Amino acid sequence: MNRNILSLVIFVIVLLIAAYALFTILYKPTAYAPPTNTYTSEADLEELNNEDLDRIDSNLEQLDRESSSI
Amino acid sequence: MTQAISLNSKLLKIIISSIVFSLIYFLLVGDVFAQSTSPTPKQARRDAQKVKVCQVHEKTIEKRFSNLSELVKKMVSKFDAISTRVQMRYTERLVPAGKTINNYDDLLTDITAKKAAVDTALSSAQATSENFSCDASSDPKGQITTYREDMQSVKDALRDYRKSIRNLIVAVATASGEKLKSPEPATNE
Question: What is the mean pLDDT of residues A22-49?
């Protein structure tokens, strides 16, 4: 009776150790991972330079056409 | 007797001349004064026609004002987003790694000042556009010209704002050891 209980306890302990080992191998922690910032200075600069300020001029030219007869 | 007749004749000539000059004066000069104080029916008709033509285009022009304001606001918010992103990268990645920029605060102060300049210029342009009216304004064409000048100021301010953000990006890149291919815009700088 006592041996059976001891075997069961040892089995449970071994099972827990195996589960823990499996967990640590397979589980990839994401919550504490550093943020993966995909932006670089180059990307920021490109986005900044791509903003075409001349669109203001093209709108003003349209305004000139629309108000030419006034 | 003959002297009296001659005197009367001279007097008559003077009187007639005065009458003729008065008539000419009132016909010509008087008419000019009348034109300057109140419009003639012909001019009033022309003004009414101008107002009508203006009214036809009023909605389109107001829509154009609105579109331009939205365009500028979108540009500003895009610049803001880029600036915030660069600042976060600096504080979250570079500073903890011990990489700092000596004039970082100056760069931020410059960005704040340049953004304020954009806001001021845009407010001025919006005020001009809000005052635009074919009926209430005596010079709607002049208002459009003023708006145009205001928008050129907005464009200049936007260019300066972009330049100040670019300075920050270049400083952050230099501090992090990143090499930049195109620090300057290709076309519209």
Answer: 76
pLDDT band at A69 (very low <50, low <70, confident <90, very high): confident
Q: Measure the CA–CA gap between B116 and B89, rounded to whole angstroms.
A: 23
Out of A37, A41, A64, whose CB is closest to B169?
Answer: A41
- Longest Cα–Cα distance in chain A: 107
Nearest residue to B72 via CA among B39, B106, B117, B105: B117
Nearest of B75, B51, B73, B76 to residue B138 by alpha carbon: B51
Q: Which residue of A has its CA nearest to B72?
A: A56
Interface confidence, given as ipTM, is 0.70
Q: Give A35's DSSP letter.
A: P
pTM beyond 0.95, yes or no: no
* Inter-residue contact B93 to B177 (CB < 8 Å): no
b/e map B96-106, b = 16+ CB within 10 Å: eeeeebeebee
Name the helix (H) or strand (E) containing B31: helix B2-37
Residue B127's alpha-carbon distances to A58, B145, B151, B166, in angstroms, are 21, 14, 12, 30
Lookup: tokens for B81: 């987003």
State the best of A36, A52, A56 to mutate against chain B, taking most chain B CBs within 10 Å: A56
Q: Residue B121 to residues A39, B69, B72, B76, B153: CA-CA distances in angstroms?
A: 31, 11, 11, 12, 6
What pLDDT shows up at residue B188?
A: 47
Token pair 């936007």 in the structure block, residue: B158
CB contact under 8 A, A49 and B182: yes
Quote the CA–CA distance of B125 and A37 in Å, as a whole number.
Answer: 38
